[in-house]
Amino acid sequence: MLNADGSKRRWTMEDAKQMFDKCGAKKPDNATWGDVQYLFAIFYSDYFPKVLDCDQKIVKAVLAYLEDPDAPEGAAFVRYLAVRCFVGDTIKWSEMI
After folding, report:
1. What is the per-residue pLDDT for 2?
2. Minimal CA–CA distance to 35: which of 15, 13, 53?
3. Share of the chain residues as helix, strand and coil, in percent rounded to the nearest 5
4. How many angstroms separate the first and last alpha carbons of the chain?
5. CB 33 within 8 A of CB 17
6. Which value, to the nearest 10 degrees, does the dihedral of the CA atoms of residues 72, 77, 83, 85 take?
7. I need a labelling partner for 11 at 20 to 30 A (CA). Which of 22, 40, 52, 88 fits?
8. CA–CA distances in Å: residue 26 to residues 2, 22, 40
9. What tens digit of pLDDT does each residue of 37-94 get?
């Protein structure tokens, strides 16, 4: 993913888990680690370092998104699917296992 600052970084699920551990955060029960990983990728790519300038702020943004009381459960995954569909990507579900 190309970041706003011109760099490239790919967040793995393990990266996201380690960042949550490092910041003392707990994944909400209604979210998956895939949701967390996707949101880390979005927030880091689009907002680091101008808005979210440290690890703790990225974690807080991810948690705020996942705990939004107005959003339905699975909102992060729905957004992921919508973006993939919009740009014309074919999701190879057999590779998602």
Report:
1. 67
2. 13
3. 55, 0, 45
4. 22
5. yes
6. -100
7. 88
8. 28, 11, 14
9. 999 988 988 898 889 999 999 999 999 999 999 988 888 888 888 888 899 988 888 8
